[in-house]
């Protein structure tokens, strides 16, 4: 995270490694505050906005939805570690369930591919048959 040369939305976006539209989207979602205009037309973005945008991006990289990020931001005071831990544990359980589903899908596809290879010149393909009839 680099400090911006200017405190504009463009400077925030560059420093956080996102585009300006991402910052605006986060503002519309209520994740990032919109600073007041100074000197008539410019908004003066404090460095804390960069930290917040980076927080949001890192949370998304860990699989948190924007709604979940909003909940995490509400715990940003550092005094709610138990609640943050609960949110992280819930996310971990979701990820582990997805991994289990992906492993199941991988095993099924491996089995179907092996059946297809072993079948040689069959009239019916085991892969398309399974997909068409749900494995019956």
Strand proportion: under 5%
What does the main sheet amount to? 2 strands, antiparallel
CATH topology-level name of the largest domain: Multidrug-efflux Transporter Regulator, Chain: A, Domain 2
> Average pLDDT, to the nearest integer?
88
Number of helices: 6
Rg value:
24 Å
Overall body shape? elongated
What level of helicity do the residues show? 55-70%
Order of helices and strands: HHEEHHHH
Overall number of structural domains? 2
CATH architecture field of the largest domain: Orthogonal Bundle
Instruction: Give the N-terminus to C-terminus distance in angstroms.
Output: 54 Å
Strand order of the largest sheet: 1-2
User: Based on helices, strands and strand pairing, what is the structural class?
Assistant: mainly alpha
CATH class descriptor name of the largest domain: Mainly Alpha
Q: Which terms summarize this structure?
A:
single chain; 136 residues; mainly alpha; Multidrug-efflux Transporter Regulator, Chain: A, Domain 2; two-stranded antiparallel sheet
Would you write up a description of this structure?
With 136 residues, this protein is mainly alpha-helical. It folds into two domains: 1-64, Multidrug-efflux Transporter Regulator, Chain: A, Domain 2 (Orthogonal Bundle), CATH 1.10.1660.10; 75-136. Helices cover 65% and strands 3% of the residues. The chain is built from six helices and two strands, in the order H-H-E-E-H-H-H-H. The chain has helices spanning 9-16, 20-28, 47-61, 66-74, 81-119, 126-133, and strands at 37-38, 42-43. Strands 1-2 form a two-stranded antiparallel sheet. Helix 1 packs across helix 2 and helix 1 (9-16) packs across helix 3. The longest helix is centred in the last third of the chain and has 39 residues, at 81-119.
